[in-house]
Automatic annotation (TrEMBL):
The Inosine/uridine-preferring nucleoside hydrolase domain, residue ranges: 10-303
InterPro entries hit by this protein: Inosine/uridine_hydrolase_dom, IUNH, Ribo_hydro-like
UniProt keyword annotation of Cytoplasm present: no
Keyword Hydrolase carried by entry: yes
Gene Ontology cellular-component annotations: cytosol
Protein name stated in the entry: Purine nucleosidase
UniProt record, GO biological process: purine nucleoside catabolic process
Keywords: Glycosidase, Hydrolase
PANTHER family in alphabetical order: INOSINE-URIDINE PREFERRING NUCLEOSIDE HYDROLASE, URIDINE NUCLEOSIDASE
Length: 316
């Protein structure tokens, strides 16, 4: 049975790869997309999602997400990595794709009670608002929530210790990570291992099996160059957000541990840091209380799946 997915993204490069994966994967039924701020301003996030959904011939509700963090401050965008419009070298056309207000999320959940899996690969603002507006509905009717964010005992990617999504809205991240045990958290601990190099990009683009192929090649090459500039010597580019989707359909590729999480929102050098208790014996508390954190990934199988889906033909 195909898994119904509501994808919350800030549609820069890796979010766009995650969306393309959802569109091409026969195991996934995309039932809605929320476009938020983050890697790029909300306007471009909406434009990029509209472009990709249209290219994939997919008609699902495209929901307008938040444009700034919960505290109302001006967001910081990752344009150095994702380009001026969020899709690397691509300036997508303005497409008249139907947009829906934020409360459409709850209509989707009510329409498919117990079936909608939420995947959040943007700053946690949209997910935190969803909990605030209807916590009981989320807890009782959503079987799983996958969150890309955090860095536990590994370097951050926006500060020495903080990951970008959690750092962008640490109040929201802390709120969502303490909502129960149906949360899977995909941090830099695993996304930093699943790297895509130029050879892998060329392998995918050479097949040219779907309308996304030229876009995949262009944006991943741009992302690889940006990551090489930021981290000279890196063996490839991470595709962080894709792994949150992969963990839903292929959880066996990951090693998870249940731990309590705290995200620091106090101003200072620890701002945005994610902390989990990895001491021996700290996992004895009931699993229902804490999220499961991915701490390892089968990189070989990741690469096989990456190639398999991104070279698949467009579904009819």
């Amino acid at each position: 049975m195909r898994k119904k997915v509501l994808l919350i993204g800030d549609f820069g490069i890796d979010d766009s790869i995650a969306l393309i994966y959802c569109i091409l994967n026969p195991e996934i039924e995309l039932v809605g997309v929320v476009a938020s701020y983050g890697n790029t301003p909300r306007l471009f996030s909406i434009r990029n999602a509209s472009f990709l959904l249209t290219l994939g011939r997919v008609q699902v509700p495209l929901i307008v997400g938040p444009e700034r963090p919960l505290n109302g401050t001006q967001p910081n965008f990752a344009l150095d990595f994702h380009g001026p419009y969020g899709l690397g070298p691509i300036n997508p056309p303005r497409i008249s794709y139907p947009l829906f207000p934020f409360n459409k999320i709850f209509d989707i959940i009510r329409r498919f009670p117990g079936e909608v899996h939420i995947i959040s690969v943007s700053p946690g603002t949209a997910l935190a608002l969803t909990y605030t507006l209807s916590r009981e509905q989320i807890i009782t009717q959503v079987p799983s929530i996958n969150i890309m964010g955090g860095a536990y005992l590994v370097p951050g990617n926006i500060t020495p210790i903080a990951e970008f999504n959690f750092w962008s809205d640490p109040v929201a991240a802390n709120n969502t990570m303490n909502q129960g045990g149906n949360i899977q958290n995909i941090p830099l601990n695993v996304t930093g291992k699943a790297l895509v190099n130029q050879s892998l990009i060329q392998l995918i683009t050479a097949k040219n099996t779907n309308p996304f192929t030229p876009i995949i090649g262009a944006i991943l090459s741009y992302f690889l160059a940006a990551n090489l500039k930021a981290s000279p010597g890196i063996q490839g580019t991470p595709v962080h957000d894709l792994l949150a989707v992969l963990a839903l359909v292929h959880p066996n590729l990951f090693t998870f541990v249940h731990r309590k999480v705290q995200v620091i929102s106090d101003q200072g050098p620890a701002f945005g840091q994610s902390i989990a208790d990895f001491r021996l014996g700290s996992n004895k508390t009931a699993k229902k209380r804490f999220p499961s954190i991915a701490v390892d990934i089968n990189v070989k199988e990741f690469r096989k799946e990456f190639i398999r889906i991104l070279t698949s033909p467009l579904r009819k």
